[in-house]
Amino acid sequence: MNPNQTLRKRLLDQEQLNFWLTNRIPRAWLTRSMGRISKIRHPWVAKLGIGIWKRLSDLDLSEAQQTEFPSIHDCFVRELKPGLRPFEADPQTLCSPCDAIVGARGTVEKGQLLQAKGMVYSLADFLQSRDDANACEGYHYLTLRLMSSMYHHFHAPHDVTVKHLRYIHGDVFNVNPPTLKRINGLFTKNERAVIQATLDQTGETCWLVPVAAVLVASMRFTFSDIHLHLDYRGPTETVMNTTLTKGTRMGWFEHGSTIILLMPPTWDWIGPEIGQRTGHSTGARIKTGQALFKLNPTRKQTTNPTTDPTTD
Q1: Which of 80, 167, 242, 280 registers the highest number of CB atoms within 10 A of its CB?
Q2: Which range marks the domain in which residue 277 is found?
Q3: Which residues have a catalytic role annotated?
């Protein structure tokens, strides 16, 4: 076996081990347990937990507004020092809602999106609405993966009016690359919240979908007092009409996970150069407020109305 084959085998073995350690476990039980442990407010527990976290990731707290954290949870949901994530002011640009690694980018074709190389999933299954999926045909999609060490809040990518929130109960598989390569339709299986909003500048509809994962099944929103988590049993469909200006905080994960953004085709990609082929995967890192799309006035606007919030 030559050195390249040896390295490839080692990487595959590490991926397989990562997959088994983070998925072939009692995921829901571990997620609930981690939630309880992370909220223990004791200096020894906080320092030990954050110390282990630093050793296992690239956690950097130099940007955090706080310097001390009474619990691991407080570190998870930390806010940043003011001014560190300015949003591109140009009203013709749409910005990243969060710090992330771009997992995939492409165009919705025949109701499908790329999950990982050679694997696609159904948008209708993902949104739990055939009407919404049909309205997104030809849309841009962008998968934004938040690593555990990143800033976990997400913001309005443009001036928007939130029209509808749909909560979809599901599993809590890991959403890292080894798992995405091994579980078909992963994003259609996990807990998620479908945020439907109108872009105030054009009147077009866009969608932001925060997806939960193992250890990460708790989401909060600034435009709603609903706290979504594994044991939530309240309404799963909420109609609203809340306006948020560009850069306003929309919500946060209580650890870190994934956001999938669906944007009208009238906006052109101006983010990191990652190739033009539909469904091109990438590992590009982006930051909250970074310009990703620019309105192209020569393209015909999609005039899809806000769809019926009922599922089908």
Answers
A1: 167
A2: 93-295
A3: 99, 155, 257
